[in-house]
User: Fold this.
Amino acid sequence: MSYQTVIVLDFGGQYKELIARRVRECGVYSVILPGDTPLERIRALNPIGVILTGGPNSVYLDGAPRCDRALFDLGVPILGICYGMQLMTWSLGGTVSPCETSEYGRTETLVERGCVLFHGLAEQQICLMSHTDQVTALPEGFVNAAHTAHCANAAIACDARRLYAVQFHPEVENTPNGTTMIHNFLYRVCNAAGDYDMRDYESVLLRQIREQVGQEHVILGLSGGVDSSVCAALLAKAIPGQLHCIFVDHGLMRKNEGDEVEAAFAGRDLDFIRVNAEAHFLEKLAGVIDPEQKRKIIGAEFVRMFEAESKKLGNVKFLAQGTIYPDVIESGAWNSATIKSHHNVGGLPENMSFTGLVEPLRGLFKDEVRALGRQLGLPKAFVERQPFPGPGLAVRVIGEITKEKLDMLREADAIFREEMARANAVADQYFAVLTDTRSVGVIGDFRNYGYVLALRAVRTTDFMTCEYAPLSHELLGRVATRIPNEVKGISRVVYDITGKPPATIEWE
Assistant:
């Protein structure tokens, strides 16, 4: 890529992806690398700036993650965040000590308005704090740039060396002016040109795909999710007539979704192959209750069906996957810690006969993938689909899977989504879960012994944590009235108000 680049060095912080996204939102390309990335690798990328992330460790203890001390002598602007601030301080001869009073949550912070990070901002700011250590003695050449009631050095600065650090997290929503602070670092310290935008990036991706694939054909496992769908639309535009999309409809999707996926690609120059396999998957899932076993069965059967359809197409050299940047990071890229391994296209085995892998979205975050999808003309409702588990409704039907239960859940979920849209309710993800519990109810003058349906709606920015969405009683009342009356087999509706932690967003 020819864009100006900011490197985000990861020291184990939970917000590393959010930092990189904020940088891109400001019009600057960013990449995430492990904190101990060799200096030669950093020099090779010729960054205009470096950001050091937070992390859970104490920098003064043996074994704490470190960077090369020479990083601070490169002459490249550096912004340290939380642990990154402490690492900068410790590396340059300052002192980091345990806090007498730790700070967590939104904290009133007084900033020095003369510091370039806080240009244009008021003296009093609200910032998210989360630390048990703090800087107690500044390195030579640094000055104090902010403080709180319990943290004397909430920000520090060395203008001469273009080194800055903050104890709080500017990347999160709970620091309302945090993006402005990052923007100030990028444009007033790093002299960013703001040369990164999705329209230009699309043309770069199209050129790269054509150079890689040439005249060969490509197979894509199309799940109907946002990532694989945007990947399909991009490939169809880059290499018209050379793309074969295999959509295995396992019968575990939401109401009408299989038809919606097919309709979204009807007018594109690609070979759309739909495999209607509901009966096959239901047979394999008969009697299975354990959610992990459900996942394994669905994944294995998906692979087998994909392989069978692929073989019918003959000697296709390239396999495409909708891998995105968080998948790369979490799967242990650049020797970083593996959080979880992502196996796109259902976890395809290594012995498949493809000689090349096409992953055009592997440098993009989810919000960028959605933006690209809109540019490519995918329907708005399709591009903005909520996250949907790979096993589909199999893990939203608690207990044994049957066609009757799936149809019941599909109808109830559709009613919930319809009423959410009608009320313009605010939630980042919402869905229905058919529990394995039955309850007595009354329909008309008759006893109704049916299933209990649970509604789930959450607010989150990263899906790593969440709070339940405080939906109005009026909305919940409408949903709870409609579902038992319109969906045979459901007698009671409840609303899940558990956050993450201690719960997960999905029930299984």
